[in-house]
Amino acid sequence: MQISNKTRVSYWVEELQRRGRITFSFKELHNQFPFHNISALRIALTRLAAKGKILSVWQGLYAIIPVEYSSVGMIPPVLYIDDLMTFLCRPYYISLFSAAVFYGAAHQRPQEFSVITSSGSLRTSRKKDVKINFITTREINPDLIIKKKTKTGYVNISCPELTATDLVRYERETGGLNRAATVLNELADHLQFTKIPDSFFSYVPSPVIRRTGYLLEAVLKHTEAADELYARIQRHKLSKRVMPLKTGKPVSGCITDRKWGLIINTSIEIDE
Fold first, then answer.
1. Are 56 and 171 found together in one domain?
2. Among 183, 222, 208, which residue's Cα sits nearest to residue 260?
3. Taking 60 as the threshold, does the pLDDT of residue 2 lie above it?
């Protein structure tokens, strides 16, 4: 007996793609084909993956690979990250170098896709040449997250000011303060500390804010942005407890920048 196209998994996936869908779950597939054997469904998915039609992006979730990426059999995470985080029931925002790209501030093509989320840790995801690095924080401040449109919908990204401070806060994940400062230099024109919500100053730790201000002023010479940030620091009476510029590095014999309350225990060099 000839099998109708409408009973084929491949036809169903093609229909999803024609309707603009970029992902689907195994549960959704099974609901669509309730009389199909689960093993048979998995075999069908394996065949579609082998043909470069789909990619398993998480256990139980698949992305449909657009035609323009079919030759490499992958899909950029930015196209499916919102669906993935909805699938995982997690708040999130795209961060660090991955967020800086949206502001034209990616000095180099990011080697990994960075996402900040809350509610417990998530393992790093590696699919072909794509790595998604999940960083967990206690909470996410929605006042500092904005929506950006992509080819497949909208994603959450950090506002420029949060992107800047996250680059400093998570400098171990970004490869050090030199790399963070390099991207911060390109991001500086987008910073508007006079307009940032007050909640920014309770959400971002004081030492991180002050390190960002020091880099903007003393290293990158973006004095206008630094002055705006310093004025807000003064208004909110942030802690000025002296901290090292570089955590985990000796401070003996180093000078202290009294304005920013930092012990300058490292030198910063940026890539031009």
1. no
2. 208
3. no
Instruction: Quote the strand ranges of the chain, DSSP E.
Output: 23-25, 54-58, 61-64, 92-94, 113-117, 125-127, 130-136, 145-150, 153-158, 243-244, 256-257, 262-263
The mean per-residue pLDDT over the stretch 126-137 comes to: 84
State both tokens at 254: 């180093």
Q: What CATH number has the domain bearing residue 130?
A: 3.30.460
Q: In the β-sheet with 23-25, what is the strand arrangement from edge to edge?
A: 23-25, 61-64, 54-58
Residues in the chain: 272
Kindly indicate the confidence band of residue 103, based on its pLDDT and cuts at 50, 70 and 90.
Answer: very high
User: At which residue do the structure tokens 């024109």 appear?
Assistant: 189
Q: Give the position of tokens 């998604």.
A: 132
Of 52, 69, 86, the position where a domain reaches its end is 69
d(CA 62, CA 40): 16
pLDDT in tens, 246-268: 998 999 999 999 999 999 999 99
Which residues are CB-neighbours of 232 under 8 A, at least 6 positions away?
193, 194, 196, 201
State the residue range of the domain holding 108: 77-263
Pairing outcome for strands 130-136 and 113-117: parallel
Asked if residue 110 has pLDDT above 70, the reply is no
| 70 pLDDT above the threshold of 90 | no
Q: Which amino acid is at 187?
A: L
